[in-house]
Design a protein that fits this description.
The chain has six helices and twelve strands. The chain is α+β, with helices and mostly antiparallel strands and about 260 residues long. Strand 9 (about 195) and strand 10 form a beta hairpin.
Length: about 260
């Protein structure tokens, strides 16, 4: 996703045993929507940990400043709740921990009462598979499993999706696990510049994403890593380069009725 870690849009690695590529790449990828949605819904049956690393980079891609936050994530009525547990590898303690516990308790109460929608709104991958045109590129072995590889580019026109002004400026590559027909990895980057607040707030010249998923024992594919890189100018002249990496780990199944309470 980044400049320091450039978005790789060329195939690499060992080739899989040749299997005829899908005759209609668009129809094949859109046929994955159901499986992708099941994976997204399955996520709410797990609690898990997220390590969030945010970095400011110099022009060589070296980190000038790094902030690390660690979260426990659980779901209440299908909605994610993040509880901050550590900053820069130091466990939250004292008043900071009390404030965070109080914030989470209030959020959980609001969700149960129907007053909160979600803590981290976003766009589901299953919803945007129809946003793009796909072209089959063959097969590739990734982490010991065969994947079908597709390039994609935005379909012309507007779509009824959140952040579509961004989505229509992305292109990239999609890896689909051949055995289970599940999205295993996605990489994308912008095809044109992005402006916010008419260019007076920020102008983004490069934006890239890389998403990797992990295969669980019960057959679903859940997020493993999300990396975002952005480069541009803020307030007309000030240059910025930053990278954000979220790593998902320690997935564990939980029973909603038992574990929706906040434990001290």
């Amino acid at each position: 996703m980044p400049l320091a870690l450039p978005l790789v849009l060329l195939l690499g690695g060992e080739a899989c045993p040749a299997e005829a590529p899908p005759a209609n790449a668009n129809a094949f990828v859109r046929g994955l929507v159901g499986a992708q949605r099941r994976g997204e819904d399955a996520l709410s049956r797990y609690a898990y940990d997220v390590t969030d690393v945010r970095e400011r980079l110099d022009k060589e891609g070296r980190a000038q400043r790094r902030e690390i936050r660690q979260y426990e994530v659980f779901y209440v009525r299908g909605r994610p709740v993040r509880r901050l547990v550590a900053r820069d590898n130091r466990a939250l303690a004292g008043r900071d921990r009390e404030r965070e516990d109080r914030r989470v308790e209030q959020l959980v109460a609001a969700i149960r009462q129907g007053r909160a929608v979600t803590e981290t709104p976003g766009v589901r991958l299953s919803r945007i598979l129809e946003r793009y045109d796909f072209t089959a590129r063959g097969g590739e072995v990734r982490e010991g499993r065969c994947s079908l590889v597709f390039d994609f580019a935005a379909r012309p026109g507007d779509a009824d999706l959140k952040r579509d002004n961004l989505l229509q400026r992305l292109s990239g590559r999609l890896w689909v696990d051949e055995d289970e027909h599940a999205v295993a990895r996605l990489e994308a980057r912008n095809t044109s510049g992005l402006r916010f607040a008419f260019g007076l707030g920020a102008s983004v010249s490069m934006l890239s994403f890389a998403m990797a998923f992990t295969h669980m024992e019960d057959g679903v594919w859940l997020p493993r890593r999300l990396e975002t890189y952005a480069e541009g100018r803020r307030i007309l002249f000030r240059r910025f380069r930053w990278r954000r990496t979220s790593t998902y780990s320690n997935y564990r199944r939980f029973e909603v009725d038992v574990q929706e309470a906040i434990r001290p």
